[in-house]
Amino acid sequence: MQDTKSIIGFQLFTQLSRAFGAYYVWIFSPVLILLSVFLLKEKNLYFNTYRAFGLLFFYVSTTTLIGWYITDYEAIFNLYPSLENVLGRMPLLFCNIILLSLSLYILFRFSVLHASIHATKSLPKITDITETYKVEKKLAKAKKTEKYAQSKSKKLHQEEKKIAQESSQLEKQLEALRQEKEQLAKMKQPKQLKLEKQKNRKIEVTGKSSGGKIASLFGV
After folding, report:
1. CA dist list (Å): 66 to 24, 59, 79, 87, 217
2. Which H or E element spans position 54?
3. Taking the CB of residue 66, how many other CB atoms lie within 10 A of it?
4. How far apart are CA 68 and CA 93, in angstroms?
5. What is the DSSP letter of 70?
6. Does residue 41 contact residue 54 with C-beta atoms inside 8 Å?
7. How far apart (Å, rounded) are the C-alpha atoms in residues 48 and 60?
8. What's the confidence (pLDDT) of residue 108?
9. Which of 68, 67, 86, 71 is nearest to 23 (CA)?
């Protein structure tokens, strides 16, 4: 909130509003606070004419950029209405961006170009991205192969288990057939013995009868 009740506050608000427009709070104060902290931290740096020009460049470029975006923005440091017909809208935008970058370098020794290059260097390279993609592709292929091998092994295990069960069932069936055959053989043995005895008796009877007939022929 603006302190407009006191004479000093009202005059300060009036002058800053005329110089920087409605956004003077965001243009005037923050850069001064940051500059004070920077100068206190860096013991070998001082506020001089060089940095005074940097501060002026910052105020002009920032206010003009706001005026470039808001065409009816009223401020003394807004040079957009004066320079639009001379440079044109887009060239004026680039000039103010360059002026803002220059002011930051003068004030804080901050180079936008160097910061951008450093940020670009910290980004992953295309070769790194390609190698990462290849490695991930190989890993995915290896996982797929391993999964397929596990599935195939599981399937083979199931088939072996099924074959073992079928083999066990066949062995049981063969054992049952063998036992059934043995039982049938045991059941047939008495009948065969009986038939053989009957056959032997018949042969004996037949032999006796034939021998009697032969003896009768010879008069015995």
Report:
1. 11, 11, 10, 17, 160
2. helix 49-69
3. 21
4. 7
5. S
6. no
7. 18
8. 84
9. 67
Residue with tokens 């004070």: 36
pLDDT given at position 9: 72
Residues 6+ apart with CB under 8 A from 174: none
Q: What is the residue whose two structure tokens read 């790194």?
A: 128
Q: Which two structure tokens, joined as six digits, stand for 14? A: 């009036």
DSSP state of 88: -
pLDDT tens sequence across 144-179 = 888 878 878 888 888 888 888 888 888 888 888 888
The C-alpha atoms of residue 81 and residue 141 are separated, in whole angstroms, by 63
CA distance linking residue 129 with residue 187, whole number of Å: 86
Rounded to whole angstroms, how far apart are CA atoms 126 and 132?
10
**Beta carbons of 35 and 108 less than 8 angstroms apart:** yes
Tell me the CA end-to-end span of the chain in Å, nearest whole number. 167
Output the pTM of the full model.
0.47
CB-based contacts of 11: which residues, under 8 Å, 6+ apart?
A: none
Are residues 75 and 89 in contact, defined by beta-carbon separation less than 8 angstroms? no
The reported pLDDT for the residue numbered 125 is 62
